[in-house]
Design goal:
With 157 residues, this protein is mainly beta. It contains 1 helix and 11 strands; from the N terminus they run αβββββββββββ. 8% of the residues lie in helices and 34% in strands. The longest helix is centred in the first third of the chain and has 12 residues.
């Protein structure tokens, strides 16, 4: 039973959980044609902690921009090809391993091809790593693709 002093806080928390994620309504699309998440987002405990700052999806050859934006980086990082897109509003996407002919500053449209899947990085062959930062902090990309299902507490026993 919740104490009387905590009831307003519990009601506020319940209301927050009922609100839809505002990022889910931005109209982003998957960066791949076929969607199969093979490794989920794992938030780190702190900025330098272990985690998986994105999702890995089984992919075809073509990789596309999940939303309108401008290419912020296209090249190699630690020996693997990476494309980074700045979507504005503090949202930045990283796609790897992706080889591309796009150049820094190029405008890219939502769902437009930005490159093709390559080999390398931490992902298995045929797999794309899709990371998203909001104001410099990694977030779960699923929040932009229809939202993350809310946890539901079930009755015990």
């Amino acid at each position: 039973m919740i104490s009387a002093s905590l009831r307003p806080l519990a009601v506020y928390a319940a209301l927050l959980l009922a609100l839809p994620d505002p990022l889910a309504g931005l109209g982003w699309v998957w960066p791949v044609e076929r969607v199969q998440v093979v490794r989920a987002y794992e938030a780190p405990a702190h900025a330098y902690g272990l985690g998986h700052r994105g999702i890995d999806v089984a992919s075809g050859e073509v990789v596309r921009s999940p939303a309108d934006g401008h290419v912020a980086f296209a090249g190699e990082v630690a020996g693997r090809p990476v494309v980074t897109i700045d979507h504005g509003g503090g949202l930045v996407t990283t796609l790897e391993p992706v080889v591309s002919d796009v150049a820094v500053g190029d405008a890219v449209a939502r769902a437009a091809p930005v490159g093709r899947l390559a080999a390398g990085g931490h992902t298995a062959p045929g797999t794309l790593h899709f990371g998203v930062r909001l104001d410099g902090e990694y977030i779960n990309p699923l929040r932009l693709l229809g939202g993350v299902p809310r946890a539901v507490l079930l009755p015990c026993c």
